[in-house]
Write a structure and sequence with these properties.
alpha/beta, 2-enoyl-CoA Hydratase, Chain A, domain 1, six-stranded mixed sheet, four-stranded mixed sheet, 49% helix, ClpP/crotonase-like_dom_sf
């Protein structure tokens, strides 16, 4: 559909593939716009029963593209579009996920991961915070675990991601994990899926309504700060930032 998002359809399931492996599927302005457009098309297509969101390469998403970042408002709109879509969105993760990519997982209704995947909230290491992505994360993920991983930027594995509610299930073969999920979605009625999803996402959308403006402003302020400039420069230059001990 775009240079960064590919679409395929089979038996009621539309698969949207993040296809920017050279940039580790980082959330550039172009990728965010392309994915939003693809989701809109899925929402308008009665042949689509559910959406699978997956990726090429060894990384599901590396988070915000520091060379071409999307405006915070665009990322908020994308996450809300996933939550509000009246069709289930299922994440298929066969690679690593960092920072903003974890927001995509949390926005999805179901997420399955390979045991080879790793996860990390790396924002604190470049001088910012996981602000916008907290909109779907905080209502759906264990708060004590988030406190640890938000504050430290540690890597954790797929089993831990499942334990804390970031993903639904993990296994050596992610497609085997997803097979009964997709079979169940194909057997469900469109009306039943839409109304059940509304029940499940009501509290998440309340968080968007209450906190989106504040967290968008926080994200913009942090990304324009001196510490963020140093953190992003250090990341791109593959060195430690000045505050590292």
């Amino acid at each position: 559909m775009t240079e960064t998002v590919r679409r395929a359809h089979a038996r009621g399931i539309t698969t949207l593939t993040l296809d920017s492996p050279r940039h580790r599927n980082a959330l550039s302005a172009a990728l965010v716009a392309g994915l939003a457009d693809a989701l809109d098309r899925c929402g308008a297509d009665p042949a689509v029963r559910a959406v699978v969101l997956t990726h090429t390469g060894g990384t599901f998403s590396a988070g915000a593209d520091l060379r071409d970042p999307p405006p915070p408002q665009a990322l908020v709109a994308l996450l809300r579009r996933i939550v509000e879509l009246d069709k289930p969105v299922v994440a298929r993760v066969a690679g690593h996920v960092r920072a903003g990519g974890l927001g995509l997982l949390a926005a999805c209704d179901i997420a399955a991961a390979s045991t080879a995947a790793t996860f990390a909230f790396t924002e604190v290491r470049i001088g910012v915070a996981p602000a916008v992505i907290s909109l779907p994360l905080l209502p759906r993920t264990d708060p004590r675990a988030l406190a640890r991983y938000y504050l430290t930027g540690e890597h954790f594995d797929a089993a831990e991601a499942a334990r804390i509610g970031l993903v639904t299930a993990a296994g050596d073969d992610v497609d085997q994990v997803l097979a009964p999920v997709l079979d169940g979605l194909r057997r469900a009625s469109p009306q039943g899926l839409a109304e059940t999803k509304r029940l499940l996402t009501a509290r998440v959308l309340e968080t968007f309504d209450r906190d989106a403006d504040v967290l968008t402003a926080l994200s913009a302020r942090l990304f324009s700060s001196a510490q963020a400039r140093e953190g992003m420069t250090a990341f791109l230059e593959r060195r430690d930032p000045t505050w590292a001990l």
